Every structure is written in C-alpha cells, then in structure tokens.
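Inputs:
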Amino acid sequence: MGGGGGGGGPSISHKHGGKHTNRVRRNQYVSGGLMLASMLDILMAILFFLMKNYSEAKTDFNVGKDISLPYSSAITPPVPALQLVVTKNEVMLDNQKIADIESGDIAKKDMYRDGVTILPLAQALKKQKDRSTYIQKHNDDHSFTGQIVLQADKGLQFSVLKKVIYTAGISDFVMLKLAVLNKEEI
Amino acid sequence: MARKPSSRDNRMRGEDGVNLTPMIDMITCLMFFLMMFASMLPVMIIDAPLPKIASTAQEVKQAQDQKNKMEVVVNIDSKGFQVKTDSGNDRTFAVSQDGKFPYNDLHKHLVTLKQKKPDTKEVTLVPHDSTTYEVMINVMDSARELTKEDAGYQTVPPEIARKPESNQFNRLFPEVSIGGV
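Outputs:
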C-alpha cells in the first residue's frame, strides 16, 4: 500500500502584492484534512495480524458465566466437545442448567441414592450419548468419542468435582478435558 | 506550448483519489469484532482421561509389558503432598507456614523419579475431598513438563515455542489421570 499523501500548501510569494496576487492566493486550495492513507496502512497491518491469530483458533470457546477458571501452563488448544460447566452455584451441560450446588455440595434432591451419581446429569449425558450414537449409525463421518470438556471454578472442592467426574465416567464420557486459562497470555 | 490567457487556471484542484473514510470505518469495525473475540482465546485444555480397567487381552498384555515404567501416585490434602511409587520411595511435602503448597519441591522430586525410569509417562492424582480444583491444576503443571532449571531440559525451537507441537519436548509425566473418583 502506498505511503502517506502529500501535505502542506504551496509556497506563496509575497514579493508582488497586487490585486491579481491576492485573487490567486484566495483561490489556491489548501488541503486541511487528515492524512488517512498512512492511518489506513497501520489499520491494515493490525487487521492482518488479528485475522491471522483468529484463523489459528480452531474453535470458539465460551467460558461460562460466574466462573473463574484456574491458570495453567498448558498449551493445548480447546477442541469442539460437549461442555460441562460447574460453577459455585450450579452444574450446566451445554448451557442448560442440570443441578444446583447448595452449601458447597451438590443439592441432595439431585443426587442418586448411591451418594455419588448426579441423577439429572447422568440422564442428560445419556441423551447426548444416544443422540451421538444415532448420528453415528447414519453418518460415517461422525463417531462417539466420549470427549467432554469440564469447565470448573478454581475454588470448587474435589468433593463436588468427583461426583461430576464420576457421573461423566459412568455415562461413557471418559475422555475428560479440563479447561484452564493460559498463564502466559494473561 | 503556452496556453491562451483565457484558458489559464491558477486554482489548485483537490485530490481526485479514492475516498478512504468508508474503508477506514469498515476496518475499524472488523478490528473491534476480531479483538473482542480474540480475547476468548487464552483458554487451553488439559487431557485428563479417566482411568480405564484393562478389559481386552491386548490391553492386559500392554499393562504387563510396562516393566520399565513406574507407578507414581500423588496424594493431595490440606497438609501437603505425598508421592508414592511402586518402588517404595515415598516422600511427603508439607504446606509451608504461610499456607503455600510446595509445588517446586514436588516438581524436583518428580524430576528425580523420571530420571530413574524415563519411560514412565503417567501420574495419578488422588486429591482429598477438601482439595480445591486450583491446587489440582497446579500439581498437574508441576508434573507435566521440565522447566529451564531442570537437568535434561531441551531448548524448544522458536518457531514452535508455545504451540502444541512443542509438546514433544521436555515431557515429565504428561499423562495425568485423576484417581479417587
């Protein structure tokens, strides 16, 4: 892209000060606008940089609301998979609320009698698995991989997480992927 | 050739170039959009597959072939870490008086273990119920890769630094699984 446009008006001689000279001076056009070409150069450079970075991102990844992910040195980018979000107040599967968390533990109404299975989560995961296997039967390109991305608040205790992980495990979602924030890029 | 006096024109005309203002508007909008969504990108993932019971003959054979490997288990509780291995070389790392977990000491010990059995890639974390998710992730970070201060650290080529391709370098115990579930 070309460089900036020319600036500054032409030099005006004050040697001859007659009527003719004044008329010429009045009619001379002086460019008073901004030099947009150089600004455009800068913006284009930033735009290309951003577009390159954006194209390297393999997937859109939305961090759940009211959640504070832990920081890690991991550098593996996220993959498209079922999103299991555990905040301090609730458990969500693909943006659908599944169970409540009360007083730092899964609400008793949502627990199965074995004390570790979260019943609504198990049911929701079974639906997802059934749907995936149904698609697999009719589409060779699709296969059920059992991948699930866990977004959990960094302050959550393992007593809550183990119930979530256990329920995912018994529902055949064993390829657990933990979402974290990259230490270097923050 | 000299012009006739009637056709002389002393006025300087404005630039006849392309009007750049709409283009700048468009680029500014695009930049705003890209910068807004680019802010979501620092999210990364850690693979933590759930432990699997060997069910097929091939899997049982594979498990038996792991003679050159060591089983490393890190127990985590509010008091600190306890590292157990099948060779019986157990070590405990207590939380400091100001409540900080000794991640560096744990990392150094894991480096020593790795040097004894370099083929080992797996580590199992067994957190106590009161362990927070943040502590679990920090332990995984301590166990996953060598740092610049460690013996055997390889310099990553700059063209793949901070990219997934660099995962082949400086591995410690990259395959982390969560036990106690």
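Remarks. Confidence is low (pLDDT under 50) at residues 1-16 of chain A. Chain A has two domains: 19-56, 71-182.
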